[in-house]
Design a protein that fits this description.
By secondary structure, the protein is α/β, with parallel strands linked by helices. The chain has helices spanning 2-29, 55-65, 88-94, 112-127, 150-161, and strands spanning 42-48, 75-82, 98-102, 137-139. The longest helix is centred in the N-terminal third of the chain and has 28 residues, at 2-29. It is extended.
Length: 167
Amino acid sequence: MMYVALALALASFVFTAIAFVTARRELRALIDVEPKSLKDPLLVVIPARNEAARIEPTLRALQAARAHVVPGTALDVVVVDDRSSDDTAAVAERCGARVVRVDADPPPGTFGKPRALQRAIDDARARDAGGVLPPRVLFLDADVVLHERALGGLVDALSRSGAAAIS
């Protein structure tokens, strides 16, 4: 019985040590984000299905963020209305977002959210004569309310980190 207790104590210690080392490595991967003005072009894509009750604060915060965009810098906010049965599109338009609609059900085996995100990217490419996207795209959920200078901070942190994406 004593050997079993000793083995369990040793296993617990090893597990705790591994968790500690892993947590420290993940903590070092976190990037400091300081609020800043946005100075690089950014496309913000918000997939939304039946989000009329939640999306307005998100879009109002993005409107407030426009006051912290360096003149001449493009900030494009696109809401992808994915077959909503409520007033999601009307709320988004009233808040100044460009609305892209997905009207048909996805094909079998295709999930709605990734399809909505791709629809926004395809639309952004079609709007640009060269089919080129801004160097940074932020996919944002409909219920995330950002600080008014978060966009600049996120883009800056992404640039400093060398990472391909930031969340």
